[in-house]
User: Fold ATP-NAD kinase-like domain-containing protein from Lipomyces kononenkoae.
Amino acid sequence: MPLPDSIVGYTQADRVRVRLVLEDRFLLLDHAPGYSDQTSAGCLSSISCVSAPSTHALRQNSIVYFNILWAELLPSTLQNQLSVLTIDYCKVKNDKKATLDRVSFLIDAQNERTCEDWIDNLLSKAYRNAVRNKRLLVLINPFGGQGTAMTRYMRDSAPMLAAARCRVYEIETKYKGHASEIVENMEGLEQKYDAIVCCSGDGIPHEVFNGLCKRTNVAAAFKVPVCQLPCGSGNALCHNLVGSNDLPFATLSVIKGIPISVDLCSLTQDNKRYITFLSQALGMIADCDLGTENMRWMGESRFTVGLIMRVLSGAKYPCRVSVRISHESRTQVRQAYQEHKNKDEHMSTSEQSDQLPELKYGTVHDPVPEDWKSIDSSSLAVFYVGKMPWMSSDALFFPAALPRDGYLDMVLIDSSVPKKEIFSILLGVAEGKHFDSKYLHYYKVDAYRIEPKAQSGYISIDGESFNFTPFQVELHPGLGTLLSRTGEFQAPGI
Ligand SMILES: Nc1ncnc2c1ncn2[C@@H]1O[C@H](COP(=O)(O)OP(=O)(O)OP(=O)(O)O)[C@@H](O)[C@H]1O
Assistant:
């Protein structure tokens, strides 16, 4: 027997008959036959009320399935012949901001069975291929952002996760490196959780990947999806996966998120091997990110002010870059982007061993492979490599980046470029307009080495400070898993 796609109930406040209909893409709250629009204006006011069922009006009175968290029927009692149907959902505005809300209806006791079946139907549409009642390991960095991560999580995220009946295990990180230790050592992590949620900036996901790679079965460990609730000062991971840094909107995306495979990279430096998931920088960007601590009092503008100061002073970062370039011209990059964008590569099916993949190109201490292109530069201004499009909510630095195309996107800008053009590039970054600038290089690469020539400086890996020594990076296609709102990065593309 097919499950029912409509039921009739009554509004709690004024007992108006309402039909709840499961349409293709949304739940429609409509007046049941016999309703007269003079009787009670405002009857469906908790969603919004309509008196004439025009298409526009019906839409106002609907909840798209993605925004529905849960529905439940509280059975009638002997004294009361009516049961209560509650639907928890998110009100979502056009600017990708969400708030938790609930609507309730009274259901005749004799319709309880039908209503239970209707709820089953509703929840299967609300979750489609997303896991319901997700089991979540939530790692909260109490120092994330301005030290408000815990308060914000408790206020905005925890009630939504509870409303969606997620099963949540929260751990507060106690020191730098703690998140890494937790995921490295937790017994049965792969079986216990449907996702690891980093309630933090980008520092905790970086630690999580570097903890996962030390587990006994690396392939299985990297299948546990990682995601972020944006509670730090840099929340690029969330912006790429969700398209917003609104905490409730991001929480909704965790609840409804689906796993996607993503490329991860190994980085060797000194005698160590790390995992990097987001970016590597040396030069102006790293300098402004990590070298402006003395300007913290300025808040977020320290980055912009730092950048202006460095461009005006013509800052240079001498280094040698050796790189395996796959796509060199903008036309080639565009072609590669189009080709991979249209491939359905949600989950990688490639065979993975239980060890971290072998390094195809050796470490930073091995000779540079002969087919790599080497560039000696005494005047490099920006060296920035990314695996995701957004580096922050206002910097679409790598508009051609894709989750699993097998490439890193590399941007090089020389300090000999006229200052006016550098400013114009940096201004264009907000919307990715710099992509077509003839004053920068934009490559797709799959491995590289960079050797700084200066005595001291800054290297930023996923936004974290690393030693100022040479490092080498190579990509592992589809090694990692993230939890994504729609199955792809939330960026406009090129
Ligand atoms: N309890 C703790 N005490 C000190 N450091 C911690 C603690 N928990 C996590 N950390 C470290 O804090 C660093 C920054 O974390 P995160 O990215 O979450 O926040 P953020 O506000 O974006 O940080 P930042 O402003 O430094 O970029 C990470 O390197 C992480 O290891």
